[in-house]
Every structure is written in structure tokens, then in C-alpha cells.
Amino acid sequence: MRKDSRLSRMLHVLIHMDRLGGPATSERIAKMLSTNPVVVRRTMAGLREQGYVTSVKGHGGGWSLAMPLHKISLLDIHNALGESSVFTIGLSDEYTHCPIEQAVNKAIKDVLIEAESLLLERFGEVSLDVLAEGFVDLPAPSFDEGKGY
């Protein structure tokens, strides 16, 4: 089953960006995440549209936080990424005429809806500064040593 790690990866990036003291290029972020700069730009664009980051083109440009971490919640980033569901559990659709499959799907769907609602509520209560609390004494990341972050 494919997992979507965009939320955790973007939280990781945003906390690093807070500590950089200047813009981070898509190339620098891509190196940190072991991905392609195009993927970084596409993902960060959703965050920019919601006002969480800004970008400047050209020499000395890159991505920067548009607001402090304490004003951004996990839910904000989840929503900005456009994720439709936090769970990847799928319902069976092979025997839609079968009353047993219908009952099983309804039970699973109801539980998933309730669990997702609780999870998203909790996401809204956690700001990014809380995630970053344990890292204030660590040196700022360099990203440039070829070792990721």
C-alpha cells in the first residue's frame, strides 16, 4: 500500500526553514529530501498559495516562511497540501450487490470518518513551533554537505 509522506516531509522542511535565517532554494530543499527540485516547487506552491511560505526568484532567492511557526498548525499544512484523506484504507467494491460487503463497508467507513475527524481536530491543536521545541540547541542545518540534512 502506498503511503503519502508529504505532510511529514513538509513539516520537516518548514522547521528547518525556520532555523536557516534566509531563503532555501528548491535545489537545497530537494537535496535535503532526496527528491527532485520540481517536486519541491510543486509542493511548496500549495503552501505559498495559502500564505505559509513566500518565494523569490533569482540569485539569493528561494523559499522562506511567511509567518512564524506558532501561527501554523499541522492541520493548516495538511489542508494546504490538498490531501483528501489521512487514511489509505480502501473499501471493497468487487461485490457491491452483496449485503455483507455493504455492511462491512459501512462499518469501516463510519469508523474511518470518526477517526479522521478526531485526528484532524488534534492536528488543528498542534502548531509547528511545538514540533520544533526540542531542536533549539542544535546547529542550523547546512544541506550542502551531500548528506541530506
UniProtKB/TrEMBL annotation:
It holds the Pfam family Rrf2. This is BadM/Rrf2 family transcriptional regulator. One of its GO terms (molecular function) is DNA-binding transcription factor activity. GO terms for cellular component: cytosol. InterPro entries: Tscrpt_reg_Rrf2, WH-like_DNA-bd_sf, WH_DNA-bd_sf. Coiled coil: none annotated. It comes from Marinomonas aquiplantarum. It comes from the Bacteria.
